[in-house]
Amino acid sequence: MADSVGRLDMLVVGAGFAGIYQLYKAREMGLSVRVLEAGDGVGGTWFWNRYPGARCDVESLDYSYSFSRELEEEWVWSERYAPQAEILRYIEHVVDRFGLRDGIQLNARVASAVFDDERLLWTVRTEAGDVLECTYLVMATGGLSIPQRPQLPGLESFQGRWYHSAQWPKEGVDFTGQRVALIGTGSSGVQMVPVIAEQAAQLTVFQRTANFSVPAHNVPFTETALAAAKARYPDRRAMGREAITGQFLNANTKTAAEMTEEEQRAELEYRWRGAGGGFRMLRTFADQMSNLDTNRMVADYARNRIRGVVKDPVKAELLCPKDDLPFGGKRLCVDSHYYETFNREHVDIVDAAAHPIIEATARGVRTDEREHEVDAIVFATGFDAMSGALKAIDIRGARGARLSDKWAHGPTSYLGLGIAGFPNMFVVAGPGSPSVLSNMVHSIETHVDWIARLLQQARAAGVRRIEATQEAEDGWVRRCAEEADKTLYPRANSWYMGANIAGKPRVFMAFVAGVPLYRRIIEDVAARNYQGFEMA
Ligand code: NAP
After folding, report:
1. 492 SS3 class
2. Which of 465, 192, 450 has its CA nearest to residue 337?
3. Among 16, 189, 193, 401, which residue has the least CB neighbours within 10 Å?
4. Is residue 360 very low, low, confident or very high in pLDDT (cuts 50, 70, 90)?
5. Considering only CA atoms, which residue is closest to atom 35 of ligand 1?
6. pLDDT (average), residues 287-304
7. Which residues are CB-neighbours of 401 under 8 A, at least 6 positions away?
């Protein structure tokens, strides 16, 4: 598909949900295009994160492509929240169904991308030494693709096996009869605990910060339930588009103060009991993420729920998030029997804040208090989120400027889509857009469609160079910060803020004011002839 010097209209980095739809769309536009993917299979996050219990915590019917009504109709989801293997099968199906496989180059980790201002071309090099040129570079690298393993001294001397949630062996791991240490209690750890506990002889969970987790109420789909849901699919998608997170959460439009105590209680119960998905707890009150008192009410409710489940009061208190963490300030976890698992005799929790992990030893993990002997260590320690995957590539834009230098104090962009100084490069669902605060598949489709329209118009008008202006970018960065400052999000030491990585700048990286507003803004920019982009 490339010409003799490997020159294409478009290169896409990453074959997850974003890269695959970008490939589909670029082909629909008649562009020559290739996707470069680091893994030896497609699927992005769903390719790598195969840990026990991995499943999506956005409902399958929402966390799926909407661009093809036929695809929506024919794919059969087995559960409200699909497990990882099923999502991967779905992605594989999409690739085959739309004939995309020959456009994807696997085992092609991109090392560098350099812009040539004379020829208006990007030169992209893979670690294996392939060199390709393209007019447009689309970064579909994902928000959570650079795993973080704690710098644990002595790990090389550990006699057992260790694993990271995001680099799980394809063949799976059998923990039967083993003593397992699990480090990290974010979404990945919370999903793994009940499943590993089924196999392990002893499971010790090292928790540094307790986060809030709400019950998923996952259920298998019956044929009738799925058929009924599909019959209303267009409405469901339309409601998702108008919902702040890009999936319908039946948000309460009243603030806590507008309700009686009885009504508040009923609202909390309704959401916790799973009248909808777990994330509905995030929309219990309209002012929940902006009013500390309202947020505390939700947090107290969640803490009492934990105390109601976990029988050992010491474990229960440890599992209750502290008062300085707003409910939802760190990404909410959605679980299936997480707290219940701590009632099992062989499952214990260690306070890794009070007693930090010092090192791995030959026999296990040592905190400043004692050594815990284990056969396996599981790291569920998260990612260098949002900006990590882009900074990991040596990206040099106009006049040789390096993206990693430009982003030394945090990621900046115009609308999350373009970056001043990096012409003809676009980012899908990255920093500066709702991305990780939204249903990612929805945000991915929004971005890819928007980029497609921009390129169609630019090409029709003979435009060869598209670049966000510095002024537009500065304005957008200010806007993102202002929106974040209206909320409680910046109060949490979350990966949204870069706080989980030592030395990473603390900047709230997503556009927090919601999917509908964001879409209106980018559509308005398009309608104003791509105001804020310089087109030449
Ligand atoms: P995470 O939310 O960043 O959680 C990492 C955990 O590891 C935290 O509890 C953190 O503690 C702990 N940790 C990190 N370094 C440590 C150290 N040196 N010692 C002790 N503890 C350490 O990562 P994640 O659970 O992989 O989830 C990341 C994101 O991926 C999620 O927020 C979500 O967006 C996505 N995800 C989604 C799903 C889903 O759809 N169900 C599942 C998994 C992941 P601190 O809090 O103290 O830093």
Report:
1. coil
2. 192
3. 401
4. very high
5. 187
6. 97
7. 421, 422
302 Cβ neighbours under 8 A, 6+ residues apart? 212, 214, 272, 281, 321, 327
Q: How far is the CA of 184 from the centre of ligand 1 (A)?
A: 6
Rounded Cα gap, residues 504 and 502, in angstroms: 6
* Binding pocket residue ranges, ligand 1, CB within 6 Å: 55-57, 144, 150, 165, 183-189, 191, 206, 208-209, 331, 352, 357, 380-383, 436, 495, 500
Atom of ligand 1 nearest to the CA of 55: 41
- Interval 93-114 mean pLDDT: 98
| Weakest mean pLDDT among 9-23, 139-153, 227-241, 269-283 | 269-283
- Identify which of 290, 270, 291 has the alpha carbon closest to the alpha carbon of residue 281: 270
Q: Categorize the per-residue pLDDT at 2 as very low, low, confident or very high, splitting at 50, 70 and 90.
A: very low
Residue 264 CA, ligand 1 centroid: distance in Å? 30
* Distance, CA of 533 to CA of 496 (rounded, Å): 27
Are 48 and 161 within 8 A, CB to CB?
Answer: no
State pTM to two decimals.
0.97
pLDDT, position 275: 56
| d(CA 242, ligand 1 centre) in Å | 29
Query: Mean pLDDT for the chain?
Result: 96
Q: Quote the pLDDT of residue 470.
A: 98
DSSP lists the bridge partners of residue 197 as none
- Cα Rg, the chain, nearest whole Å: 23
Distances (CA, A) of 374 to 5, 175, 381: 54, 11, 18
How many residues are listed for the chain in this entry?
536
The average pLDDT across 232-250 equals 94
- State the Cα–Cα distance between residues 434 and 412, nearest whole angstrom: 14
State the angle between helix axes of 17-28 and 440-460 in degrees (0 to 180), rounded to the nearest 10: 30
Residue 424, pLDDT > 90, answer yes
Closest CA to 50 of 194, 186, 168: 168
Question: Is the distance from CB of 432 to CB of 511 less than 8 angstroms?
Answer: yes
Decide if pLDDT at 1 tops 80.
no
Q: Among the atoms of ligand 1, which is closest to the Cα of residue 190?
A: 25
Measuring from atom 28 of ligand 1, which residue has the nearest CA?
382
Contact residues for 242 (Cβ-Cβ < 8 A; gap 6+): 516
Span from the CA of 51 to the centroid of ligand 1 (angstroms): 13
Give me the residue label for tokens 């550990």.
158
Checking if the pLDDT of 249 tops 90, the result is no
Q: Compute the distance from residue 352 Cα to the ligand 1 centre, in Å.
A: 14
Ligand 1 center to 348 CA (angstroms): 19
Which tens digit of pLDDT belongs to each residue from 469-512? 999 999 999 999 999 999 999 999 999 999 999 999 999 999 99
Residues 6+ apart with CB under 8 A from 494: 329, 330, 331, 500
Q: Take atom 15 of ligand 1 and give the residue whose Cα is closest.
A: 381
